[in-house]
Amino acid sequence: MLPERIEEWTGRTVVCFGAHPDDDLHAAGTFARLVAAGNAVHLVMYTDDDKGSLDRSMTSARLTQIRRREQESAARALGIPPENLHWLGHGDGELEYVDRRALCREAAALLRRLRPDAVFSFDPGTHWEQWHKSDHRSAAQNTLDAIRAARWHLYFPEFLEAGLEPYEVPVCFFFESREPDYFVDIEATLAQKIEAFCAHVSQFGRRLYKYEPELHAEDRAAFDTAIRDYTASVGAPHGLAFAEAFRRLTDP
Ligand SMILES: [Zn+2]
After folding, report:
1. Domain membership of residue 92 as a residue range
2. What are the respective helix, strand and coil percentages of the chain, to the nearest 5?
3. pLDDT tens digits for 183-211?
4. 120: CA distance to ligand 1 center in Å?
5. C-alpha to C-alpha distance for 39 and 121, rounded to whole angstroms
6. 70 within domain boundaries
7. What residues pack around ion ligand 1 (CB closer than 5 A)?
8. What distance in angstroms lies between residue 122's CA and the mean position of ligand 1's atoms?
9. How far is the CA of 137 from the centre of ligand 1 (A)?
10. How far, in Å, is the centroid of ligand 1 from the Cα of 165?
11. In terms of DSSP bridges, do strands 13-18 and 118-122 run parallel, antiparallel, or are they unpaired?
12. CA-to-CA distance for 35 and 23, rounded, in angstroms?
């Protein structure tokens, strides 16, 4: 029986489906807790974030390499090994244009193979995801479609021949939700969350405009303050010093 509180889990597997490397930061404190308690955390990145730079000398091929290295070092800060990173390799900003059946099949195959006790992803219902951020919207909806396809044996029947038996995901945790109803205390892993955030050097501060591999001390200090303030504001109404918020969906 899966305990309702994720803080009690051990020996379990969770999979996070993000559109980009760094989307999993929404749940980084929770993931570090899960790893410390002996659970396996896998991160799926639908895209390589190969357009996420305003540096005119940057190319998509180079940025792909940079973003993959940054994600590996962010994952390391949370205790997630590189073999638990799954790159689907789609183009940044173009997830909506990928063949829908092929995309669902990719995610469903991963679910049948990894057989996670929980799936994490964006909540498809927020304003920002609905109207502005197409990759996030697409990642959220495709992940839900893949959860359905993983469960029913007549979806992608070729999976059965490959030994990928149907699998029912018991629970989902959606981040960036307008209706959060589940809060995880991340006080013990806040420093790891900040460290993971700081690994994405190319995305923040001046590095977005002119790439350099090192984060400046003032950027690091600013992120530290911003993440502390934000996670404190999430936790305060629930009596927690620092927290991450999710919408929990059982029987997805
Ligand atoms: Zn993103």
Report:
1. 13-236
2. 50, 15, 35
3. 999 999 999 999 999 999 999 888 899 99
4. 14
5. 18
6. yes
7. 19-20, 23
8. 9
9. 10
10. 31
11. parallel
12. 18
Q: What is the DSSP string of 113-150?
A: HH--SEEEEE-TTSHHHHHT-HHHHHHHHHHHHHHHHH
- Give the distance (Å) from ligand 1 centre to CA of residue 112: 25
Ligand 1 centroid distance, CA of 221 (Å)? 23
Which residues, at least 6 apart from 150, have a Cβ–Cβ distance to it below 8 Å?
A: 108, 111, 112, 166, 167, 168, 169
Task: Tell how far the Cα of 19 is from the centroid of ligand 1, in angstroms.
Answer: 5
- Structural domain tally of the chain? 1
Evaluate if pTM is beyond 0.90: yes
Structure tokens at 193: 């969350």
Tokens of 112: 């049948």
**Ligand 1 centroid to residue 160 C-alpha, Å:** 33
Model confidence pLDDT, tens digit, residues 115-153: 999 999 999 877 666 666 789 999 999 999 999 999 999
The CATH number of whichever domain residue 175 belongs to comes to 3.40.50.10320
Is 197 part of a structural domain of the chain? yes
Which tokens belong to 207?
Answer: 């590095």
Q: Is 181 strand, coil or helix?
A: coil
C-alpha of residue 1 to centroid of ligand 1, in Å: 33
